[in-house]
Design brief:
This protein is an alpha/beta fold and 399 residues long. The chain folds into three domains: 74 residues, no CATH class; 116 residues, Elongation Factor Tu (Ef-tu), domain 3; 154 residues, Nucleotide-binding domain of ferredoxin-NADP reductase (FNR) module (Rossmann fold, 3-Layer(aba) Sandwich), CATH 3.40.50. Helices cover 22% and strands 26% of the residues. It contains nine helices and 16 strands. Helix 6 packs parallel to helix 8. It binds flavin-adenine dinucleotide. The site of flavin-adenine dinucleotide has 20 residues, from strand 7, strand 8, strand 9 and helix 2. Flavin-adenine dinucleotide binds next to strand 7, strand 8, strand 9 and helix 2.
């Protein structure tokens, strides 16, 4: 199967949607799928579909010009792109893997530490309820007036340089924070960014130490001016495919990028702003917290659950209140194990992406749960995981 991309060139940044049948396993083989890739990956995707017995029904340019350009299967091919063939890796024994995350037009480092953007604080409020452990705040900055405009997309982070100097009298270094608002901002006006910040606190030699930047942010007052850098990050970008499935594993402030995805998927005002992204896939959030009042953005998540019961699933692991199968504390990896069959069935679908965000300590537990779950199916997680990663379907940002 060779496919013409009409006026495409090697440096073409356009996206193409391949409509395909008979791909995947079991009942999935009957379903029609739409896989969206940049031009550079189109040829390899077509090759993989052919190798896996899929039937291409149409290839459509994302700007809708495909048909008019004569884009159709069984026509002339462009010069073979030199991009890697990501679909040659498999997530499970046979499932094809097709990257659908577009890195095109993702802003990076518009503002650097030497010349940061100065944003003013619009809002700063607590996200945790009474009886919660620790402090976690939602903080919003005004980004208007910059040249260039400080813009970002879902899944990116920004840097904050706290006021003051370090122990050596030097200006503080920046700290990164995952962006918690969608690109349109919480007010949907397109010139704000929000963060979800936990104040770092620990004890040393009997003294309570407060983290420099997280305390600076949690204590900050509306109107204050803050040095902001970035945005950065392409690891946690959301696939452009409206029919992708998105499994999210978050602990604590790791909810920040997940909130941006879920707002983009389900918040009515967001959906109205994004006619090209009317999410129709399955989104499943696993959220870990120590206590119920530590569940962040819980009201919004329950609203999405009520409004989109066919598309959204929300599973919590509340370690100090719930027990796992062995009577121990319920962590997110215990929930992963409980739902291993469903998670693996989803991962077999090349449209499924997994996102992990939160404290570094969550990774080994999830790996262990996936190893156990895979072994029960006769699969080897240590082989599958790098394949998923290479296929850009396994996204991790832990800190
Ligand atoms: C990509 C990325 C995204 C992030 N997103 C978020 C986010 O969305 N929300 C969020 O709250 N944070 C996030 N972070 C973490 C954030 O960047 C800061 O690291 C965090 O806020 C702490 O910074 P601080 O200045 O308050 O702490 P610092 O004053 O810099 O103190 C941190 C240092 O304290 C020491 N320390 C920490 N804990 C202990 C302990 N228990 N015992 C002894 N010493 C200790 C360590 O030396 C550590 O390096 C993210 C980090 C990255 C890399």
């Amino acid at each position: 199967m060779r496919v013409s991309t009409g006026r495409a060139t090697q440096s073409d940044a356009r996206m193409f949607t391949v409509v395909v049948e008979c791909l995947g396993v079991g009942s999935q083989r009957r379903a029609e799928r739409r896989l969206t890739v940049p031009f550079a990956l189109l040829q390899s995707l077509v090759g993989t579909i052919a190798r896996q017995g899929g039937r291409i029904k149409a290839v459509i340019a994302a700007d809708g010009a495909g048909a008019a350009d004569g884009l159709a299967p069984e026509t002339t091919a462009p010069a073979a792109p030199s991009a890697p063939a990501p679909s040659e890796v498999a997530a499970a024994p046979n499932p094809p893997a097709a990257p659908t995350v577009s890195h095109a037009d993702v802003p990076v480092n518009l503002y650097k530490p030497k010349a940061p953007f100065i944003g003013s604080v619009i809002d700063n409020y607590s996200l945790v309820g009474e009886g919660a452990i620790g402090r976690v705040n939602h903080i919003t900055f005004d980004l208007s007036g910059g040249d260039p405009q400080l813009r970002y997309v879902e899944g990116q982070s920004i840097g904050i340089i706290p006021d003051g100097v370090d122990a050596n009298g030097k200006p503080h270094k920046l700290r990164l924070y995952s962006i918690a608002s969608s690109r349109h901002g919480d007010n949907l006006e397109g010139h704000t960014v929000s963060l979800c910040v936990r104040q770092l606190q620990y004890e040393k030699d009997g003294e309570v130490i407060n983290g420099v930047c997280s305390s600076f942010l949690c204590d900050i007052e509306p109107g204050a001016q803050v040095k902001i850098t970035g945005p950065v990050g392409k690891e946690m970008l959301l696939p452009a495919d409206e029919e992708a499935n998105v499994i999210m594993l978050a602990t604590g402030t790791g909810i920040a990028p997940m909130r941006t995805y879920l707002r983009r998927m389900f918040e009515p005002g967001e959906r109205a702003k994004n006619p090209e992204y009317q999410f129709r896939g399955k989104a499943w959030l696993f959220m870990g917290a120590p206590k119920t009042p530590n569940l962040l953005y819980d009201d919004d998540l329950n609203r999405y659950l009520a409004e989109f019961p066919d598309n959204f699933r929300y599973t919590t692991a509340i370690s100090r209140e719930q027990q796992n199968r062995d009577g121990g504390r319920m962590y997110i990896q215990d929930r992963v194990l409980e739902h291993a069959d469903e998670i693996f069935a989803m991962i077999e679908d090349p449209k499924t992406h997994v996102y992990i965000c939160g404290l570094k300590g969550m990774e080994p537990g999830i790996d262990e749960a996936m190893t156990t779950a895979a072994a029960a199916k006769g699969l080897d997680w240590s082989t599958m995981r790098p394949q998923l990663k290479k296929a850009e379907r396994w996204h991790v940002e832990t800190y």
